[in-house]
Write a structure and sequence with these properties.
binds 4-nitrophenyl phosphate, 4 helices, Rossmann fold, alpha/beta, 4 strands, 4-stranded parallel sheet
Length: 154
């Protein structure tokens, strides 16, 4: 079961979601789940996560420094089973790929009243960045519970 978290640049929000999810799935060691992240844009292919996301990840004992930007496109989207987009715009972009749209979700639909995850790329306040992390932590947790309950054969 391959889950991909999707944002725009794959350097701020989705790498955090990936790291939180990788930590969460340690609980489900007997399940065949792989987690990754991607951006809909090509700008940051091969680049490390933004400093602010690396900083907040470190604060919560996660190391994302080795992650590198990757772009999801119509040609590689079929490599994944579940597509979790961080906001409305990347959600719509993901729906435009030639994939099973019933497997495309917005991260904020998992316990955040469908909110968009604010983009740490544009946020300076440490408190707000921490709030984004908390939003990701809550929604990723709920999202994984949903996927696991939705996949009885996992
Ligand atoms: P992300 O944030 O989608 O969470 O990785 C952004 C990263 C880069 C840009 C915009 C958003 N950018 O315009 O380069």
């Amino acid at each position: 079961m391959k889950i991909v978290f999707i944002c725009l640049g794959n350097i701020c929000r989705s790498p955090l979601a990936e790291a939180v999810a990788k930590k969460e799935i340690k609980k489900y060691q007997n399940k065949d789940i792989s987690i990754s992240s991607a951006g809909t844009a090509s700008w940051h292919i091969g680049k490390p996560p933004c400093d602010k996301s690396q900083m907040i990840a470190n604060k919560f004992d996660l190391d994302i420094s080795s992650y590198r930007g990757f772009q999801i496109t119509n040609s590689n989207a079929n490599d994944y089973d579940y597509f979790i987009a961080v906001d409305e715009s990347t959600y719509s972009h993901t729906l435009s790929f030639n994939i099973d749209s019933s497997k495309v979700f917005k991260l904020g639909s998992f316990g955040l009243n469908n909110a968009d995850i604010p983009d740490t790329y544009y946020i300076e306040s440490q408190k707000e960045i921490e709030n984004v992390y908390k939003m990701i932590e809550t929604s990723v947790h709920n999202c994984l519970e949903f996927i696991i309950s939705n996949e009885p054969n996992l």
